[in-house]
Amino acid sequence: MENYKPKYAPQSNRIKGQCKGGGNAVNPERWLHGTNILTHDKYYAFLQHKAQARYRGEDYRLTFDDWKVLWPDDLWLQRGTRVDCLCLSRHDFEDGWYINNVDVMTRREHLSKKRGMEYKKNGR
User: Fold this and answer.
1) What is the pLDDT of residues 27-83, one digit of tens each?
2) SS3 string of the chain?
3) Is 107 within 8 Å of 82 (Cβ atoms)?
4) What's the number of domains the chain is made of?
5) Alpha-carbon gap, residue 115 to 64, rounded angstroms
6) In this structure, is residue 16 part of a structural domain?
7) Which site in 17, 23, 28, 106 is 20 to 30 Å from 11, CA atoms measured?
8) Which residues, listed in sequence order, are joined to residue 106 by a DSSP beta bridge?
């Protein structure tokens, strides 16, 4: 965990109170969910996930508390874009993002499940 490089949390070498010029220093004391960088990263990932779902017109009922239950720290560190990494997927792709309709699975499982749903939809 000490090697964790945040993806969403802002990083800066600027220290609060010692900034000159434009821009703000990173101030973990002002973060909504505490000073833990991992929790902060989860929160920004949650906001991005929610925005993407709304952009696609999908119903989104997950809360950040649901997100934290779905993504404990050990699973969070296994997220990624490779097929063996973890992602959040829906059981029924026609239904929205509800706590009872989502599960954390590997991208390989997600892609094969989605492919199977497309075959059924197209009558193949």
Assistant:
1) 666 667 766 788 888 999 999 999 999 999 999 999 999 999 999 999 999 999 999
2) CCCCCCCCCCCCCCCCCCCCCCCCCCCHHHCCCCCCHHHHHHHHHHHHHHHHHHHCCCCECCCHHHHHHHCCHHHHCCECCCCCCEEEEECCCCCCECHHHEEEEEHHHHHHHHHHHHHHHCCC
3) yes
4) 1
5) 29
6) no
7) 106
8) 86
